[in-house]
Design goal:
- By secondary structure, the protein is mainly beta.
- The protein has 2 helices and 21 strands.
- The protein has 2 domains: 89 residues, Immunoglobulin-like, CATH 2.60.40; 167 residues, Glucose Permease (Domain IIA) (Distorted Sandwich), CATH 2.70.70.
- 11% of the residues lie in helices and 39% in strands.
- The strands form 5 sheets. Strands 9, 12, 14, 15, 16, 18, 20 and 21 form an 8-stranded antiparallel beta sheet that branches.
- The longest helix has 18 residues.
- The radius of gyration is 19 Å and the shape is globular.
- This is Peptidoglycan DD-metalloendopeptidase family protein.
């Protein structure tokens, strides 16, 4: 164990090619060495809080890429691998607060009909975000659209004076109709119209890495489509709960939203 912990410190100090940056905070990513790839041919099965974790190979090691929940407490956490517990530390982080005014108050305090729809959609989205496919993860990401960052990941959001969930992605302001590109190669998991997210595309990049593109004005792909990096998946819009045209871009690891900026 000490050997791997020392190796992990060396990894953290250098830049990882085609890997996200490690930032072990709530909403961030911990990169943990879990096995020697020179002696272990296949990727080991690793879990965090009962969820399968992305494992990728680099520099002779199998590395676990752990998505840390936004509500995680700072302190010692553990991975499960080959019947053993591997400890890692989550560092504290304070996110800023953003106050937003929404003209349609039903998007802030939904009526009964909308609330029933939201419950059903949340169950669907949870399953999509938690999907783990066996193919190796594609981790070489590009920015999916041009434009200014207007809503940073993790911000505590207050809509019309009501506190709601933290921001689970990156908002990129762009004109309606601006093409939205697949951030990496993958397969379209799901497309749909959701109450809060509007028109959405989910893409599976392998081994539990999922990207999501929301508030689209149009969708140009369908479930099952195979994508190359840069393929168009839709166009920027303002569908769902939005104050204007922009792309909401999210990335999920082991079902948890993590800061997309760590992949750029």
């Amino acid at each position: 164990m000490k050997k791997w912990l020392l190796f992990g410190l060396v990894l953290y100090s250098g830049q990882l090619l085609a890997f996200p940056r490690a930032n072990p905070v709530p909403g961030g990513i911990a990169i943990i060495p879990v096995a020697d790839a020179t002696t272990t041919v296949t990727a080991p099965v690793v879990q965090y809080e009962g969820k399968r974790v992305t494992v990728a190979q680099q520099d002779g090691a199998w590395l676990a890429l752990v998505g840390i929940p936004l509500d995680a407490q700072a302190g010692e956490h553990h991975l499960q691998a080959a019947g053993s517990l591997i400890p890692f530390e989550v560092q504290p982080k304070q996110y800023r607060t953003q106050r937003i005014r929404i003209n349609d108050n039903n998007k802030v305090e939904p009526d009964d009909e909308s609330s029933q729809r939201i419950v059903q959609e949340l169950a669907v989205q949870k399953g999509i975000k938690s999907r783990y496919s066996p193919q190796a993860a594609t981790l070489d990401f590009i920015r999916p659209a041009p434009g200014a960052d207007t809503g940073r990941f993790g911000m505590r959001r207050i809509f019309n004076g009501q506190q709601r969930n933290p921001h689970s992605g990156m908002d990129i302001a762009a004109a309606t109709g601006t093409p939205v590109k697949a951030t990496a190669a993958g397969r379209v998991l799901h497309t749909g119209d959701f109450f809060f997210s509007g028109n959405v595309v989910y893409v599976d990049h392998g081994s539990g890495v999922i990207s999501m593109y929301a508030h689209l004005s149009q969708i140009t792909v369908k479930p099952g489509d195979n994508l190359q990096q840069g393929d168009i998946v839709g166009a920027v819009g303002s569908t769902g709960r939005a104050t204007g045209p922009h792309l909401h871009w999210s990335v999920y690891l082991n079902g948890e939203a993590v800061d997309p900026a760590l992949f750029l």
